[in-house]
Amino acid sequence: MKNRSSSTIFAMILSVLACFAFLPQMQAAPEVVPGPDGCYPGFTTAEGCNALNFLTTGAGNTGLGWYALFSDTTGSFNTGVGAGALVLNVGVDNTAVGTAALLLNTSDDNTAVGTDALVNNTTGDRNCAFGSFALFSNQVAGNASNAFGFEALFNNDSDSAGTGVFNNAFGWEALFSNVDGFWNTAMGDFAGGGITGNLNSAFGADALSNCTGDSNTGLGSFAGSTAGASSNTIFIGANAGTAVTWDSSNIISIGVTNDSSVFGTAANTCYINYIFGEPAIAGVPQAVFVDSDGVMGFNGSSRRYKHDIKPMDKASETLFALKPVTFKYNTDKKNTLCFGLIAEEVAEANPDLVLNDSSGRVSSVRYEQINVMLLNEFLKEHKRVEEQQASISQLKSEMQTMVAQLKEQAAQIQKVSAQLEVNKPAPQVVVNKP
Q1: Are 150 and 173 spatial neighbours (Cβ–Cβ below 8 Å)?
Q2: Does residue 21 have a pLDDT over 50?
Q3: Contact in structure between 323 and 345 (CB atoms under 8 Å)
Q4: Both ends of the chain: CA-CA distance in Å?
Q5: How confident is the model at residue 315 (pLDDT cuts 50, 70, 90)?
């Protein structure tokens, strides 16, 4: 590619220079005797065959090399170092270092360092290219893009549509395929090399290298390299999400090489590795929840987090209307038997015990709230048992008192009976006299 491009560029240079002979308005500037080492008036320095050949009123220019800044007349503060660097330039504040760098440029505020860097740029401005063939194809209105590396942003604005703007590429062939995409950022060899969409960010070698969608983020070598036509995805970690071609949206994959046979490729899904089956190493674990706004945090229990505090009382009696079931999840390939509730049935008993999805449909049960309601019912039952125990204890005490009294009464009765037996008169014999 390099040899073909160089020969093409120099053939172009020769044809352009041949045209100058037929342009009567382009006359050589009046001869001015240079000072030492190519120093001319107007802060101008020129060294090389026809360098700054047509300069008139332009100031602060430096042309070093064969035909460097050849066409510049009134443009100022340009620096061209290398054969053909800024050869057609008529703009201001441009810097080109390298053979054919900014060869066709006619606009302002561009910087190109490297062979053929920004070579096709004409009216695009505020571009920076560092590396051979960086921003090679940038043409008419590819503005405000930065490329650092061999063939970085190579195809940017190659169709001259003017939409390939505000892109940043750092690394060998970074954002290589981008043509009309805007606000893309890639850092790493071939990072975002296949990106053709907008608002993508790729950090790491080959990150998002096969991405054609919008608003994707890949952080880590090969992260999201098989994102395909996905949009609004986030891949974090080396090789994150690389085992499948997604073509889905709203996916987060952290440290997971998503084998589709295990994880699937569902949209609107978050995958996080190294959590399941991994116990907390130290400290007391704390449950984490996600609210309806997508905010992750813990359920604070301190009084300072709450208001309208009142006893639960009979509110927990809703539990008696719930119907526990066994079931299996449709998406569970292992067909694991589960135990729980049906959210729609719970909503009929108490709508405060369910959560709705973004479309307003009943989605899940607030099991942590049910646990607290169970505690309330337990405490209520415990209180009733305690009251019953107190009543039983009181009855036992009363019964013991009654038994003692009965025993005492029995003893007294026995004593009286004994006394009566002692005091009982002796039986008398009646003699019948004839």
Answers
A1: yes
A2: no
A3: yes
A4: 170
A5: very high
Cβ-proximal residues to 114 (8 Å cutoff; 6+ apart), any chain: 97, 98, 101, 129, 130, 131, 132, 133, 134, 150
Strands 234-236 and 269-272: unpaired
pLDDT at 394 over 60: yes
| Beta strand 289-290 pairing with 111-113 | unpaired
Query: Cβ(346)–Cβ(353) under 8 Å?
Result: yes
Residue 33: count other Cβ atoms within 10 Å of its Cβ: 6
In this structure, what DSSP letter does residue 211 have?
A: B
Two tokens, residue 174: 């970074």
Which one-letter DSSP state was computed for residue 228?
Answer: B
Closest Cα partner for 79 from 39, 49, 65?
65
Report whether 350 contacts 335 (CB < 8 A).
Answer: no
- How many CB atoms are located within 10 Å of the residue 357 CB? 10
Phi, psi torsion values for 251, nearest 5 degrees: -120, 140
C-alpha dihedral (78, 80, 84, 90), degrees to nearest 10: 0
Work out the pLDDT band at 18, boundaries 50, 70, 90: very low
| Residue in this structure with the two tokens 């910087």, named with its chain if needed | 111
% of the chain with per-residue pLDDT over 70: 85
**In terms of C-beta density within 10 A (0-12 exposed, 13-18 middle, 19 or more buried), how is residue 340 classed?**
middle
H/E stretch holding 327 reads strand 325-327
This prediction has a pTM of: 0.74
Mean pLDDT, the chain, whole residue set: 85
Quote the DSSP letter at residue 21. T
Q: Is 41 exposed, middle or buried, given 0-12, 13-18 or 19+ CB atoms closer than 10 A?
A: exposed
Average pLDDT over residues 144-171: 90
12 — pLDDT class (breaks 50, 70, 90): low
Q: What angle do CA 27, 31, 37 make, to 5 degrees?
A: 120
